[in-house]
Structure formats: C-alpha cells, structure tokens
Amino acid sequence: MRWSRKNDPKSIRARQQALSLDGLVTSIDLQPFAGAAESVTGVAVIPVSVVGPIVVSLGEYELDDAGVVVETGRALDEVYVPLAHTEGGLSDSLYRGAKAAAESGGFTTHVLHDRITRASCFVCASTEEAVQLARWLEGELGAMRAWLADSDDPFLSRHAKLREVRTHVVGPMCHVLWAWTTGDAVGPNMMTRNSYALNMGYVLERAPVKPERAILEANMGGDKKPSFQYFHHGHGKTVIAECTLSDEAIRRVLRTTPEDLEALAWAGTHGAVASGMQSVAFTPASAIAAIFTATGQDVGMVGTSSMAHGTGRRVEGGFHCSIRFPGLEVGTVGGGTTLPSARDWLGLLGCSGPGKVYRFAQIVAASALALEISASAAMATAGSENFFRAHRERGGLR
Q: What positions carry a catalytic annotation?
C-alpha cells in the first residue's frame, strides 16, 4: 500500500481512509500534532492521573561561563504531577510515597551536572595515529569553540555549547565524546548537527593525521541504551532527590518499619550487584515513563533516564532515603513539548517554556523517589504481602 507521507489534511485523511480508521483516534484536529512526527494518522489516548501535592524544596540553577551548574536560590513548593499510564496501582503508590514524605518535611532536590554527549569515532591506519589524533583533539577545545562560533553554517545550533572533549583509544580507533549543554531542550538534534560539523569540517580538514573513516555515533556513550559511561559521567541532567521519613509516617502511612526498610535495602543492593544491574533502584522507570508520556518527552530515552542509584539507611527518628539520576534527558522546549496536551501538563508543573528545565528535572526525580518509597515499603512487609496484594487487587485480568 502506497500513500503520501506528508502531514497535510488531505494526506492524513487518505491514510485514515485507506486503513479504515475512524473513531476516537481520528476524531480530533491533527494539525497541532503534524510537526511532531512523520505520517501522522491519528492519536493514542492514554489516561492521565494527577498526583499530589508533592512537597519539595527545589533549587534554582543556572550555568556559569564554564558550564558548571550553580545554585542561585531555593524554595519550598507543592506540585501536582501528571502521570500518563495504564499501570494499575502506580498513581496510588506514588501518592502514598509523596504523602509519607510530605508528613516528614518533604523532598529536597539538587541538580549536580548538565551534559549531553555524542560519541563519535575516527578510525585511523594504526594505533599510533589514533593516539596522535586523541592528543591533538584534547588540545583543540578552545579552537573548536571559536570555529563553531564563527561558522556561518545555518544548520549549526547556537544553543548547543561545546564544553569538553574526551577521547578513548582502542586499537586504531579514536573514540571521542563531544560533551555539550543545550539549554532548555534535551538537545540530541542540536548536538548531532554540531558534532557532525566538527567531525567533517574541523577534524578531517585540520587533524595532523588523516582518519580513514569518521563515524558520528559509535556507541561508546550508549545513546538510548543503559551504559556505564552514562551511569558514571551522566547524559542530560544529573539530579539527586532525598528525604528523611519519620518513624510515624513510616508506621502510619507506609505501614512498615524502618528496620524492615533497611533490611530490604541491604538485600536489594546485594541482589543488584549479583545480577550485574546497571542501576541500584526499585522501579524508577514507571514514574519516569508516565511523566515523560504526559509532558511530551522522548519516551525512547526512558531506558537511560531511569538509570538510578538509590540509598537507604536508618537514622535517629526515621529513615533517610535518596535517589541519584545521572542522566535525566528532559526538555521544556522543542520536540514533543510543543504538543497542546504536553504544554498543558508542563504548565501545571510550572515548567512550560524556557528557563524551566532544571525545575522539571528536579520534579521528575522527586516523583520517582516517591514511587520508590511506596513500592519499597510494600515489598518490605512480611513476605512482601502488601506488594502482592496491590498486584492482586489492581492487576486487571485474573
């Protein structure tokens, strides 16, 4: 079956008729969606729950001239979080964790780092040439920045700023991690255009050795795939969320004990190590996927964005817990955030438009920690009975 892949009204309707599609999925005006994907033919409607309030101390951040994230202020806020999903029990569980945290003083979040990388590779004639190229590349950062700034290439992004160049030589291959900041956009399109320009217009033209091949993305970073590189160095916004749950909130809201939570943390951490798990956490992907879907984020990035490192320990009067996300790939401008529904839900969070990406990243992290708290509490009960009962009662088909 052949048809036009254009997104004008005539082409859209032709695809719908050819596929005999009608009903809810084709009942709305699709023009506001036409800029977000190719061959738009309809919509998928997913229920959105709103959970809150999530009480969280949010930092205000900006980048200094060197690209370092600097905290400029802090304020306590109450946010209501949209969750687009079909996972029974998810919304109630996240709410329970948020309630326990709120009754204990709320969450606190911190943005630590901001980088997104494109992992290119230059294949040389020998290891000796690859080493020579790597040493030259690491000394060219300032010149590369100037070259990008002076370029009149209309396809280059002026929002993407080159921050570091890291190399890794293996055999005749010189892998290069181009590290960027991209403002309030996630930035893959920006950094891809700029990295390509550096590869083809700068390295191949100026390098002291001539590589045999340039590859724009050679998988050392792990684009859209969990990797140690991303877990360690970050890819997107590196964020930590924490809270100290009171003994009373643990008993009354979570219906477990600090001792049981600590025992679960001990067993779960060793289980993660034994399995070679890239993350040390319970279920952050559920919260992140639900928020991403509601707010127009790239759901292909859930796998990497949900890499996490959770901690839990008994403290006087309660239980301290935290979760570190090394690479939340989030944006508040561009891409799916331009869709009408995404703008509405980002607006609910106070995160629509420029200047809001660090706030949004912190809300995502706090929300995921709320789910971690509740799910962990359910698993920590004797025999994990509460976890079992939640799945029995909300699991849909018998």
A: 87, 224, 298, 391
